Amino acid sequence: MIKVADGDTITIRTSKNEKIKVRLTGIDAPESGQLFGKASKEKLASFIANKDVRIETNKSDRNGRVLGKVWVQPSDCATCGKTLNVNHAQLLAGMAWWYRQYAKEQPVEDRGRYESAEDESRKRKRGLWSDHSPVAPWDWRRGVRGEIDEQCGSKKYCRDMTNCVEAKLYLNQCGLRGLDGDSDGIPCESLCRD
Description:
Elements: E1 2-6, E2 9-13, E3 19-24, E4 27-28, H1 37-48, E5 54-60, E6 66-72, E7 84-85, H2 86-92, E8 97-98, H3 108-124, H4 137-141, H5 144-152, H6 164-172
Parallel strand pairs: 3-6
Antiparallel strand pairs: 1-2, 2-3, 4-8, 5-6, 6-7
Helix pairs in contact: 2-3
């Protein structure tokens, strides 16, 4: 039996009939009250529904949750075994952020894969990246969403910007990723040409 709490937390029942709460490492999914919170939870449920899971872990958090990578058999491969890294799959689906704050706790190989998966989802505007200004869950939990809304106002597009400095503020402080269409770190290229 598996219960999905949100896009990065599940409860499993072991073969010894013990319940274990597992926090997927390397990712942070939108909170339930956030845009895409429900979609992220549903996507995670779709990856693990009616499947046995393998948890790769070596620690727990202060809340007693096991921290780990969750592996399942891919739905499209009956002979593959548990080869689908669900944490990574959530990133590819655009249903979570790569949790850069904890990158040093990940193996180097995972850091590269997770960063690439998030970058790919951003470029293709998958899931939460289809929103013009997604708010990271760590900011949401700290209540930054209100501060950002007050500071940033209603400007959303390059045509609303008056100069490059303003465009950079909206990209870097307000999180308007849509201002950087080619994801090169330079917003509103028509305003910010060298």
